[in-house]
Design brief:
With 126 residues, the chain is α/β, with parallel strands linked by helices. The chain is built from 7 helices and 5 strands, in the order H-E-H-E-H-E-H-H-E-H-E-H. The chain is 47% helix and 14% strand. A 5-stranded parallel sheet has the order 1-5-4-2-3, sandwiched between helices. The N and C termini lie far apart (56 Å).
Amino acid sequence: MKTALFALLFTVSSSVFAADFADIAHKDLTAAIEAKSVVVIDVNGSDSFAKGRIPSAIDFEAQEKELAKVLPADKNALVVAYCGSPQCNAWKQAAKAVAALGYTNVKHYNGGLSGWKEAGGKLQAN
């Protein structure tokens, strides 16, 4: 009985967490980047960031300690975190950090860097 209750609570809490950070579609992210209405956060690490990232992205590894300074004052601003691929979960660290700062419109780009390239997106590099 206790095991079933624990499993149920774990499933519910996992579902609630997943709902906190909705996915954003490729076309919607592209439109937001073109409109300059999104802050994109790359969590692939500084070496990967220098080699290629989604345009306009900021380097989470380099900016994590000063994240509040690189985010807009508007706590309702769209902020999107991504990592390397759909299998990567590193984006959650950035999403949680942004949400902890009070931002309410935090999303996840599920395709990550690999999905961006597969969809024909160009990379920005140093």
